[in-house]
Write a structure and sequence with these properties.
With 443 residues, the chain is an alpha+beta fold. It has 14 helices and 22 strands.
Length: 443
């Protein structure tokens, strides 16, 4: 691998460029007109404008990205997260053009991207799944019949979903009848696929995911779990590891199930297998697999010292995986710093950063593309930075997090720094007893 097209923007593009440079790989960045002069364009060896600000006219254009890759002599493409990272047709197109896709095979993306198929694939590998419909339900009548047998509440989920889009809880038949067309409508508008399926809703759960790495030689390894339960409307805001909710037996079983799931789909590259831990039964259930690098991957990197993006590049280049069960040291927490006004319903806050001063010091890492004077465009995700803090144990990590958040200064746009300061003052967060509904119930 000699030259890499980074088919993304923001902090993940910066992260990929740095990992590639460490490996001696040249990089080509792409940018829309809204991102002219953005940090990732200045760090890459070369940067090419690919269109106007709207993502469908720039970052989501398969044809333009492949044209740039070929014109600049790239031999590989890294999609980052979001945008085209879980687009099986893009992965296949990269391969068809004789380029290396830094990610899993297109078939694995396709199977795991269809949540109904994914359930069947992993269930066949003895991975427990939440009781649900046998694939997509054809109409509201079929959904009602499933709910009558399984019992309420139930959860409607988009087959091609992610990020909570198309997901709705129904507490009774009347609510299910109202929610079904709305869920299909939202799924169709967001993913171009209005297929939905139904699961039994578990009210008291933790969301725990396992980081896996797999190569093209049949080796699959895992690097432990991350707890992603502090969410708002199914959007993760804070992640930590190890999970305060797991004991050693549960952790061992969870990680083993994740490896089985990755093997079942013929996975290669970095990915995460996501589970719900039902606090009432102490059982865990598969919900989905993210076939890409995760926003929260630095949590695992801080615990293990493993560069996950570098391993993505090595695996894509054909190197065998030499990692599995790397010992985790201490405790790590990641805070997503978004340009949002959390006191006003998390309203987006685009604009110009008049000040941006991240914290530093022992055990503190900040992954960002932001700087004073940078523009936060309204067209994309509002992530400004990720603050990742490490401590010898959870107590130290929490104390260091409070110090780091106090040092974090953002001006010119609203940010979620204050939200995270508030969170760390809450007893359920301090003692690690929060659930996925915690933040929704309080904001």
């Amino acid at each position: 691998m000699r030259r890499l097209l980074v088919a993304n923007r923001g902090e993940i593009a910066v992260r990929i460029i740095r990992a590639a440079r460490d490996l001696g790989i040249e990089t080509v960045a792409v940018y829309s007109a809204a991102d002219r002069g953005a940090r990732h364009t200045t760090l890459a060896d070369r940067a090419v404008c690919i269109g106007p600000p709207p993502a469908p006219a720039s970052y989501l254009r398969h044809d333009l990205l492949l044209q740039v890759a070929e014109a600049t002599g790239c031999d590989a493409v890294h999609p980052g997260y979001g945008f085209l990272s879980e687009d099986a047709s893009f992965a296949a197109g990269v391969a068809d053009h004789g380029l290396t896709f830094v990610g899993p095979p297109a078939r694995a993306i396709e199977q795991m991207g269809d949540k109904a198929i994914a359930r069947k694939v992993v269930a066949g590998a003895d991975v427990p799944v939440v009781p649900g419909s046998d694939g997509v339900v054809a109409d509201v009548g079929e959904a009602l019949r499933f709910a009558a047998d399984a019992g309420y509440p139930v959860l409607l989920k988009a087959r091609s979903g992610g990020g909570g889009r198309g997901m709705r809880v129904a507490k009774d038949a009347a609510e299910l009848e109202r929610s079904f067309p709305l869920s299909r409508q939202e799924a169709g508008a967001t993913f171009g696929d209005d297929g939905v399926y139904v699961e039994r809703y578990l009210p008291r759960v933790r969301h725990v995911e396992v980081q896996v790495l797999a190569d093209h030689h049949g080796r699959v390894g895992q690097l432990g779990e991350r707890d992603c339960s502090l969410q708002r409307r199914h959007q993760k805001l804070l992640e930590e590891a190890p999970s305060p909710a797991l004991d050693d037996r549960q952790r061992e079983e969870l990680c083993a199930a994740a490896v089985r799931a990755a093997r079942a789909v013929g996975y290669a590259s970095a990915g995460t297998v996501e589970f719900l831990l039902d606090l009432d039964s102490a059982r865990f259930f598969f919900i989905e697999m993210n076939t890409r690098i995760q926003v929260e991957h630095p949590v695992t990197e801080m615990l293990t010292g493993v560069d996950l993006v570098a391993w993505q590049l090595r695996i894509a280049a054909g190197e065998p995986l030499t990692l599995d069960r790397v010992p985790a040291r201490g405790h790590a927490i990641e805070f997503r710093i978004n340009a949002e006004d959390w006191t006003q319903g998390f309203r987006p806050s685009p604009g110009t950063l008049s000040a941006f001063q991240p914290p530093a010091g022992p055990g503190v890492r900040v992954d960002t593309h932001s700087f004073a004077g940078a523009t936060v465009p309204p067209h994309y995700d509002s992530l400004l930075a990720k603050l990742i803090v490490h401590g010898a144990d959870r107590d130290e990590a929490l104390r260091r997090s409070r110090r780091a958040l106090d040092e974090f200064h953002v001006a010119g746009v609203a940010s979620t720094v204050g939200l995270h300061r508030w969170l760390l003052e809450q007893s359920e967060v301090a003692d690690g007893t929060y659930t996925t509904s915690y933040l929704t119930e309080r904001t």
